[in-house]
Specification:
- This protein is of the alpha/beta class.
- A five-stranded parallel sheet has the order 5-6-4-7-8, with helices on both faces. A three-stranded antiparallel sheet has the order 1-2-3, with no helix packed on it.
- The structure holds adenosine-3'-5'-diphosphate.
- The site of adenosine-3'-5'-diphosphate (A3P) has 21 residues, from helix 2, helix 6 and helix 13.
- Adenosine-3'-5'-diphosphate binds next to helix 2, helix 6 and helix 13.
Length: 327
Amino acid sequence: MAALEPKNTKAQDKTEDETWFVWPMYLYQGLWCLNYILEGVIAFRTHFQAYDSDIILASLPKTGTTWLKSLIFAIVNRKNLSNDLTQYPFHTKNPHELISHLETKVYLKVNEKLPDLSKIPSPRLFATHMPCYSLPDSIKTTKCRIVCVCRNPLDTFVSIWHFFQEFEACKGIKPDMEMMEKYVDKFCSGVSPWGPYENHVLSYWKESKQNPKKVLFLEYEGLKKEPRDHLKRLVEFVGCPFSEEEEKGKVVDEITEVCSFKSLKEMEVNKSGKVIFGFENKALFRKGEVGDWTNYLTPMMAKQFDQMLEKLKTAGFSFEYYQMNSS
Ligand code: A3P
């Protein structure tokens, strides 16, 4: 533990009283951080200087990050790639290599040397799992844009539950119902990586209502149901709308198709290799379905999400594309 202790963390800023599979977790200023990313969280908050032209993807883990990374990369770069699908780099690079996560990649280990991000061509594309209230000030004060994707909490939990079992150091763990109950309990009481879940969702949703030019709030389920409409919202929001010619042509469908679950999952680059520390790329593409939680959670477990759902409802939030009925 001591070796991983971030150098510039004040003791009073964090408590370490939880674990997530094999990791200790800190509650750092209201944000649950796996111990190995805390240093990155602090460095990102301290040093990142946003530009007006930046586009930042914000999401909780397992809510559609990989998918959105591929879509944003495709729409922003489509002109450079002459709208020619064979030129799209998804065949050789996983979407996480094309858009880097700020706290888990760019700033993860920067004790000695800060990364120089000034040479990245505009618009710079980045991603973060942090909630809106934890973002560095420069993201809030510049005109940079944030695309947030959220997913219903039950499927998010089931996805995260499976994902962490794929971590190489977790392979020896034999999860049973008792363990799953324990993790449902943690998740529903706000204890999950980058959680609490509901604070994350509400932070971006509220900002998108107050400042729709700053934050575009999307739902995983909406993207699944109406990919074309969502793609149009996305291109308009990031400032590169489809031309009439593009709308009439095939490009909208082609981008939707190349970034689809089936297409990305089948690419050789995503069947092997590792771009996220400790995880094989294939773990990023499990089922990609809506409502898969019904195959895993007992009615008792599902009931535990009610309090979280109630909190969202009380704050005025409801999912546009998902009927939030846990029973
Ligand atoms: P499941 O575990 O339910 O299958 P993230 O990218 O934020 O880690 O989210 C991973 C979840 O998104 C996984 O959900 C994964 O299968 C799904 N996913 C990955 N790529 C997708 C795509 N192109 N379309 C739809 N879902 C996708």
